[in-house]
Design goal:
348 residues; alpha/beta; ten-stranded mixed beta sheet; 10 helices; elongated
């Protein structure tokens, strides 16, 4: 079996070079070719010796996820359906903006967490992704988007619960951030969790970590239990206590995501409870009006309810934004990622 290089760190590539009897700097050259120059064919890694390239051809490989479908929204967002080496699929979303672009990556195929409002939950967990598959999503999409800004943000908000695939996710984050590779600053990478308490505590202890977003979505345990069964295991009080203990870097804030479900959690009382729950935390709140998922018993909130909700938060001293929905027309928006092949003719 050839050795898969995608997902290997600088140290690992140096060790591979040493094991092959090459000087360690060859590992660094490989790292640079892979992640900084983003060359995926050994023949194009002209910084390497001819004999090393030949050996790489025989004994190593670089497997990017294959681009199965590309769905482009009217707003410029692109949802990619990517096929992994074993045939499983995941989604990655590309969101161009005026001065930057944001890549939304999956950390698992499917998800085991079972939030009742989310399309990914319906897939169940297919499997964890490897670090190479997480990084590979970004590399595959960047290769497909040659016209872009230099400023890229990454959000781990696609399919899956990143803190239930902790090691691969953190390895991928560090690969993104490596200054000798893609050099995306850690503070431009955001990991979103449904509230996996042991993972949050572990992340708090990491020296090199992404920013943290917590999908709160409810303001009482009863309400959160009903929407996100994971709350029975890791209830609100414990999550918020972990947030109060969470170490923040200069100018860093925690993000709370709050999906607004029409008539369910979008009332003024909910907003007032949210103000009280997050008081004293250095945080911002992203309100996400629910994006439709066929077959689920929820509805989008009324515009008026969203505006009132935000107003109450702001008057209460919270930094609150409404996350503009992107890519809804191609099932690319938050909570809509279910590996749908929307180009297929509708079933009759
Ligand atoms: N699994 C992680 C990462 C996915 S991020 C997490 O849950 O945090 C996906 C975000 O979209 C989460 O904040 C989630 O609460 C939200 N979401 C899920 N389904 C949604 C839907 N149908 N409409 C809007 N937001 C949704
Ligand atoms: Fe999984 Fe996040 Fe969807 Fe919940 S909201 S089912 S944790 S992807």
């Amino acid at each position: 079996m050839p050795t898969e290089l995608l997902g290997l760190t600088l140290d690992e590539l140096r060790r591979l070079a040493a094991a092959w009897g090459e000087p360690a700097y060859r590992g660094q050259q490989l790292f640079h070719a892979l992640y900084a120059e983003r060359r995926f064919a050994f023949a194009r890694m002209t910084n390497l010796s001819h004999s090393l390239r030949e050996r790489l051809e025989r004994e190593a490989c670089i497997t990017l996820p294959a681009l199965q479908q590309r769905y482009t929204s009217a707003d410029g967002t692109v949802r990619y359906l990517l096929r992994l080496a074993d045939g499983k699929t995941v989604e990655t979303v590309w969101m161009p903006e005026a001065r930057r672009q944001t890549l939304c990556l999956s950390t698992q195929a499917g998800c085991a967490v079972d939030c009742h409002f989310c399309a990914t939950a319906q897939l169940g967990l297919v499997r964890n992704l490897t670090a190479g598959e997480i990084v590979g999503q970004a590399l595959a999409v960047l290769a497909d988007q040659p016209r872009r800004r230099s400023n890229t943000n990454i959000v781990l908000m696609g399919q899956g619960e990143p803190l239930l695939n902790y090691d691969a996710t953190l390895k991928a984050v560090r690969l993104f951030a490596d200054p000798k590779g893609m050099a995306i600053p850690l503070l431009k990478i955001t990991l979103s969790t449904s509230g996996i308490l042991p993972g949050i505590r572990r992340l708090a202890g990491e020296e090199r970590r992404p920013k943290l977003a917590l999908s709160l979505n409810a303001t009482t345990d009863a309400q959160r239990d009903a929407l996100m069964p994971i709350n029975r295991k890791y209830p609100l009080g414990e999550l918020l206590a972990a947030c109060r203990d969470y170490p923040l870097r200069a100018r860093e804030r925690l993000t709370f995501e709050y999906v607004l479900l029409g008539g369910v959690n979008d009332t003024p009382e909910d907003a007032r409870r949210l103000v009280a729950l997050t008081r004293g935390l250095r945080a911002k709140i992203n309100l996400i009006p629910w994006n439709a998922v066929p077959g689920l018993p929820y509805g989008a909130p009324a515009d008026e309810a969203v505006a009132t909700f935000q107003r109450i938060l702001r008057r209460g001293g919270c930094l609150a934004f409404i996350r503009r929905s992107r890519g809804q027309d191609v099932a690319a928006a938050c909570g809509q990622l279910a590996s749908l092949d929307t180009s297929a003719p509708p079933a009759t």
